[in-house]
Each structure stands twice: as structure tokens, then as C-alpha cells.
Amino acid sequence: MVSEGPAQRQSAESAYHFAQAALAKGHEVIRVFFYHDGVHVGARASTPPQDERNIGAQWSALAAEQGLDLVVCVAAAARRGVLDEEAGRRLDQAPAPGSLLPGFRAAGLGQLIESGIDADRLIVF
Amino acid sequence: MATPARKRFLWMSRRAPHGSVQAQEGLDALLMAVAFEQPVSVVFLDDGVYQLKRDQDPARIGRKNFCAGFPSLGIYDVHDIYAERESLALRGLREEDLLMPVRVVDSAALGALMEAHDVVMSF
Fold first, then answer.
1. What CATH number has the domain bearing residue B94?
2. How far is Cα A44 from Cα A82, in angstroms, rounded to an integer?
3. Chains A–B, number of C-beta pairs less than 8 Å apart
4. B35/A108 Cβ within 8 A
5. Whole-prediction pTM value?
6. A1 at the B interface (CB within 8 A)?
7. Which among B8, B93, B105, B79 has a CA at the least distance from the CA of B51?
8. Could you give the number of structural domains in chain B?
9. Closest residue on chain B to A111 (Cα)
10. Which member of A73, A77, A78, A87 is catalytic?
11. What is the pLDDT of residues B59-95, one digit of tens each?
């Protein structure tokens, strides 16, 4: 679980390095759940300066390469304006993928709890 | 995919109730674990013990009084609620300052508590 935003905290980057290391060791990463300000990691509109790291884009690339399931909490994202207006209004509908980076999807907190049940380890960053 | 055997979840709630939405969102996640019928224990530590302070009136700062729901957690079969003794003492909180009775445990006992659970969540 990534619980901090990409701009002010290292949480998303530490989780990224950890996931890479775990995958390199042959572990399976069944899901990465972005909660609290962590939902900003999946925001397509985020544009850090070009000479700086774009951790959202890096997660996106890792997801494409490894088939990771990147899930942004729909309620936390709606609260922070990360999902577009229509998706924020209709939480029961599939949110617009247009507001998220490729490889990210929005879903409910049940996905976090399910991960805790299914995985051997759930790690909070 | 069928959901397999239950896991014992431990919620470690370390943030002050107001000033950020993290504690409140932590409670949302806790209630989801309860909805999944998982056994959940909760421990309040660090600034998280302020969530247990009685007589909160956060409406005056435009905040929801979500802590008022803690005494009702028993309805959802959440009975194992702890607070760390050192965190309470450091902040001058006594048990009679709390909005509900909790099991006060020493810092040294927290390791065993974590050991006794399958999934440790930190909020």
C-alpha cells in the first residue's frame, strides 16, 4: 500500500524500489494499492519538471512490463480531485480511465482488504 | 477468485484525528475489513491516541467527528482495542480522558501483539 503523495514524500519511490527488488527475487506482487495522498501517484495530469523523476510514469512502465495491478482507491481519489468530475459523482460507475496513467485503475477499499487476505505479506509505505 | 481463510488484521493508528484525513480514511479501511468478516484488532499509538480523547467537538474546525464511532466498534465484533501506555503518558492523557474503555498496553507488548496478527496495517 502506498499511502503518501509523490511530491512531498518518498513513499511511492520506496515502494517502487521494493517492488522491483521483490520481483527480481522471484516474488509475486499481486497488487499495489494507492490510498490517502498516494492516489496522486496515478494522476495522469501530474507533470513534474522534465529533469526530475516521474514516479507515476515509472510505476506505469513497471506495470506494463510486469503486468502489475495498480489500484487507486476510488473514494480517496474522488476526495482529492484525481478522478474526473463524472467519476467523482458516480462512485458506483467505472471511473474515467482518462484521469489516470496507463496501468492504473480505480476501485474500492475492498481491493486493499482482499490483498491483505490473499497475499503472504502486505506492506505499508 | 474465492476468498480463502480469514486473516487476523491489526490496525496501528498513529495519526492525530484532525489535521490530516489519514486517521479517518484508516477507519474507512478498517470498516471494510470488518465487512469482509476478518477479525480486526486496533491499537492507538503515537499521536493516534488523541483519536480516543473524549468530548471532541471538531465541527468547530469543519471536521467530522468520526471518532464518535469508536465506542460502536463492538457492534461489528471489533473488541480488541488497545492504546499504548507510553503514548498516552507522553501526551498527558489518562484513561478517564478517553471516550471508551481500552486495553492499555506497554510499548514492549506491542511486538507480541504484531506477532499475533497476520496483517499489520499502519495508518
1. 3.40.1260.10
2. 9
3. 51
4. no
5. 0.92
6. yes
7. B93
8. 1
9. B32
10. A73
11. 999 999 999 999 999 999 999 999 999 999 999 999 9
